[in-house]
Amino acid sequence: MLINHETITNTLGPGKRYVIWVQGCNKRCFNCINPSGQKMDSGYVKSMEEIKKYILSLDGIRGITVSGGEPLLQYNELRKLAFWIKSRTDLDIMLYSGYTYSEILRKHPDAESFFKNIDIFIDGEYVDKLNTGSMYRGSDNQNIYFFTDRYRSYAEKILSSKQRDFSFEIDGSGEIYFIGIPPENFYRQFLQELEESE
Ligand code: SF4
Q1: Domains detected in the chain
Q2: Contact, 37 vs 22, CB < 8 A?
Q3: For ligand 1, what atom is nearest to the CA of residue 97?
Q4: CA angle 39, 46, 172 (to 5 degrees)
Q5: What is the whole-number distance in angstroms between the Cα of residue 138 and the centre of ligand 1?
Q6: For residue 83, what are the contacts with CB-CB under 8 A and spacing of at least 6?
Q7: Which of 6, 77, 94, 129 meets the CB 3.0–4.6 Å disulfide criterion with 65?
Q8: 38 CA to middle of ligand 1, Å?
Q9: Residue-level pLDDT at 169
Q10: 191 C-alpha vs ligand 1 centroid, how far in Å?
Q11: Which atom of ligand 1 has the smallest separation from the CA of 25?
């Protein structure tokens, strides 16, 4: 997989999770939180075997979140990874996509069987002015699907919650990665303040 960033965190889904931000996205949502994830010619490659080995080495995580960039641009790898996670571990899978569920089904006719492996799916582009602090959703145009029973009983609570966690990480080269979903306009204001402080 072509990856933008990966980490272990409590801020992007239920419990402690391994989060992968894939590299590459064709959309250009206003105030995208991860513009470095849009570039198609950046990031690093991690083989499926490396990812699987790493997942098996992790202790105490509840699940895996895949965000981006646009995960569905790497549909074949994602599909294989999801099948493997569900057949070999008891981890849950949370997935983000800038495409809607119906757009994905149109593009990938076998996606219905893929989605049977996804516990929580958040679809749709990020619309900054519809960012009202909703739990797990960047903006309120996005839908949350619960394709398995794992979190379905929490659906109502999740859909009505405004509780959101947000943090950031700085890697060895000084690159800043935001973890979770920030408030409306956050990224633009952050960059402005950064420019003013320089
Ligand atoms: S779909 Fe996600 S990664 Fe792509 S531009 Fe929109 S917010 Fe950014």
Answers
A1: 2-197 (3.20.20)
A2: yes
A3: 1
A4: 70
A5: 10
A6: 114, 117
A7: 94
A8: 7
A9: 86
A10: 17
A11: 4
